[in-house]
Amino acid sequence: MEEREADSPPAAEKKGAEEEDDFGYRLFPDRNKKPQSFLVRSLFTFHNKCQLMLRLTLETNPYARLLLEALKQSGCTVFNDRHFSCENCDGCVSGGFDAATSQIVLCQNNIRQQSHMNRVVTHELVHAFDHCRAHVDWFKNVKHLACSEIRAANLSGDCTLMNEIARFKFGLKGHHQTCVRDRAIRSILAVRKVSKETAEKAVDEVFDACFNDLEPFGRIPHSKADAKRAYRDFQNRDRYNANL
Questions:
Q1: Is 18 part of the annotated catalytic residue set?
Q2: Environment class of residue 21 by beta-carbon count within 10 Å: exposed (0-12), middle (13-18) or buried (19+)?
């Protein structure tokens, strides 16, 4: 999870976890509370707005729709009421993937705009896709975490030109790669009690392989138009494979 605008996995089983590392759970206090009744939750505007924005993202956003289909094809069908949870979080994070429950946490107190919801859901769905297709050791192998963070930053739209301009960050050659690397490092530092040097080393050691792993998009979707083309290509690829 990246500070201020982190969208990464807190995810971990608390039982047996070392006391000095809570795997980011401190950022998600509602994870430890009993779920509120629907009536109680419905009284909170944040929760209602979060649910409405989530539904719109899942139904219309090409990034999310592609990932949902890819997860389904990989044997990990995602259900809205089971795999997403709108909760209050620490002020520095926007969302997270809880691998212990295979659930995406959306920070209803921090996500206020639809574009932000689109990006957070996509980022966390990349983590969910990695969790489904590979044996990711989120808790003990920092290189595994680094790889998924690189892929999520690269494929979710986190580092699009417009988003970087909004952050007052400008660059020309190689700026996208720099953005992906920096956000991956910040995300690791937010959810793991490791040194900056350890996080940087983990990211650098796996960067090339993970940056070039573009599944399931097949390309870096730099815009919604790119994501739509990737979604169309993914559907055509599926139809082609079905006819083999």
A1: no
A2: middle
